[in-house]
Specification:
- This protein is mainly alpha-helical and 244 residues long.
- The chain has one domain (3-237).
- 86% of the residues lie in helices and 0% in strands.
- It has 8 helices and no strands.
- The longest helix has 53 residues, at 33-85.
- It starts with a helix and ends with a helix.
Length: 244
Amino acid sequence: MDIFRITLIGLFAGVVGTGLGSLISIILFRPTSIMISSVLGFAGGIMISIVCFDLIPEALEIGGIFYGITGMLIGVAVMALLDQLLPHAHFIEDNDYNKYVRTGILLGIGIAMHNLPEGLAIGAGYAHSSRLGFGLALIIALHNMPEGIAMSAPMYIGGVSPIKVIFTSLMAGAPMGLGAYIGVKLGIISEPILALSLGFAGGAMLYISFDELIPESHKMSNGHSATFSCVIGVIVGILMSLYI
């Protein structure tokens, strides 16, 4: 089994997925209030959908309710702690858009954290069969595109240069390569640890969606743009879970 090739496939799935999402957000995005509301709302909706219909069910199936819920609670606690620490760092001085930069960075941290266990899944899939591994890599790469949009849009709004935005999104996807290497190297992953990791990722994503993305979407909303974009995001996430 070519471990190096599988590691590259995992890296490709993470980096290209978030990178394409970042590029899309930069090319198509214009910082008007309704677009800010729609992009953030859609990102929050699709993120919640992926967590509820993909990450958490998988964590519960693998490790049971104890490990799945424990992982979620740890993820929420860690992100809440980071949320308290990050405001002390002034990424852009004298800029009212600092909060958007912080949102993007928080989301990027969460994405990087959950890309590692998703990489483990790719590696384990390849350890079982090439078909399963490739299918998981494709699904996760597609999942990472809206995540790339979710983290890039707030940073772009906050005044971060496109090159730095894209670079940050690529780095958020990079841990997937390490996860793929570990997964295929071990062959059989410890189920409790994997369940904790997936639960942790789900908890982190839920915290960011409810604490950052959706509230900001409603603040910038024009009429019901935030609500409708969130609902559309959830529907798209469900369709991805069912048919991809």
